TraR/DksA family transcriptional regulator (Polaribacter aestuariivivens), 125 residues
Amino acid sequence: MPDVKLKYSDEDLQEFKEIINKKIARAKEDLALLEASYKNDANNGTDDTLSNFKSFDEGSEVMSKEANVQLAIRQEKFIRDLKNALLRIENGTYGICRATGKLIQKERLKLVPHATLSIEAKRKQ
C-alpha cells in the first residue's frame, strides 16, 4: 500500500498562501480598474448632447460598460474563491479534493490555487 499524504506540509501551505495573497492583490487592482472604467466615464464632456451624436457610439459604449460589469462580477467571484482558499489553509482542509478526499496535485494548486477538485475529479464532472 503506497504512502498517501493526507495534507500538505506547513512549508507548502505557506508557499500556497503567498501565491494566493499575490493573486488577491493583483485581482483587487484589476477589479478597481474595471470598476473605474464603468463607474466613471473619463469623458465628462458634452459630446453626447450634440445633435450629430451617433447612436452607434452610444450602443457601443453601453455594451462596453456591460462587458466590464460582467468582468468585474467574475473578478469579485475570483477574489472570494481565493479568500475561501485562505480559509481552507487556516482550517487544515486546503489542497484536499472535495470529491475524492485525496491531495490535489501541487502543480495544479500553483496554477489554480483556489481549486477544490483534483484533475481526476474535474474530468468526471
Observations:
- The chain is about 65% helix and 0% strand.
